[in-house]
Amino acid sequence: MTEKHTALYEEHKKLGASFTDFGGWQMPLKYTSELAEHHAVRKSAGLFDLSHMGEVWVTGEQAAEFLDYALVGKISAMAEGKAKYSLICQEDGGIIDDLIVYRRGAGTFLVVPNAGNAAVVAAALLERAAGFDVQVEDASASTSLIAVQGPLAESILLRLVPAAQHALVKELKYYAAVEVPFMFDGGTRELLLARTGYTGEDGFEIFVANESAAALWQAISAVAEEGELLPAGLASRDSLRLEAGMPLYGNELSREGNPFAAGLGPVVALSKEGDFVGKEALAALKAEGAGSTTGRKLVGLKGLGRRAGRSHYPVLKAGAVVGEVTSGQPSPTLGYPVVMAYVDAAFAEPGTALDVDLRGKAEPFEVVALPFYKRSR
Predict the structure, then answer these.
(1) Neighbours of 225 (CB within 10 A)
(2) How many CB atoms within 10 Å of residue 357?
């Protein structure tokens, strides 16, 4: 398989990044210390390259109606300028991907799937578009995505925005997006700025054409003062999202799972008018209590010792296997191990004492409500 590089690959090399394969992309795992990068996002700000993510435009008179059919959420109810977390599911209710939808106009939507699923989601949308007056355009290959996450994210980005337009950034609500003029590379460019992220902190994601990505990355780095901003890689992104209780496709979400077991029942709009892909199966799963009274349910586990559970480690109750870890590591912010795991619904109540089998040794954990970490507002 040919390695894929984002438009910022050379920037990462200059910064001495350690690279890892992620969905076929060579992405920065870390630049110096993943712990330093993690703490920078929690205390100041981190700069991320998310250009491996997908960008699929859906346009046309029936765009909203089509997305209501193709996805599980009620996309037609979105106001212009807003963003919405949703899922694209199979007919049997299995999750193809979790994604974010941005409504940019009455009949204009931007769908952002995960890196490894971008082509799969684009193909599924194109297939499901048959019979609808819509156009589906996969712009992933020509679009870069840069994120600035952390308490100082807003103040840093404002230095690149003309003073007369500062309100566009300051007044932008969480899960909303707006076109903002950014000053960099000797000129001003209107870019789509979203107040979204995957870290549990305040922050922004900026959509930019590949040819302007490096100049924007450099400009953001240049306006940050000493100690305000660190480039951050996938290692810190993973520890940040885990603390924030955010699921990762391939770990917590999969085609074999379902939204209810994953705690994403509220994302599924079974009451919306008309049919949607997976509706019948999802209605049946909800009726039988999937994720609440039957089967397994995604929970948070707080480690009572020092050792962390890792993906696929068994979860035990009195020595019997009652679940499986999906993600786990020591929490840099909280100072104890944290785990997300699917456990039998009978043992999913917060306060339940469970063990994780750490290579033959049972380590004590306790079920806790997600997220593990919530920023102060």
Answers:
(1) 11
(2) 17
pLDDT digits (tens, 9 = 90+) for 213-254: 999 999 999 999 999 999 999 999 999 999 999 999 999 999
pTM over 0.85: yes
Which token pair is 172?
């932008």
Residue 37: closest CA among 186, 239, 245: 239
Quick: pLDDT tens for 85-144. Answer: 999 999 999 999 999 999 999 999 999 999 999 999 999 999 999 999 999 999 999 999
Angle between helices 63-70 and 118-128 (to 10 degrees): 110
d(CA 113, CA 135): 17
**Helix, strand, coil content of the chain in percent (nearest 5):** 25, 35, 40
C-alpha to C-alpha distance for 10 and 8, rounded to whole angstroms: 6
Radius of gyration of the chain (CA): 21
How deeply is 55 buried, as exposed, middle or buried, from its count of CB atoms within 10 A (0-12, 13-18, 19+)?
Answer: buried
Of residues 241, 231, 220, the one with CA closest to residue 31:
231
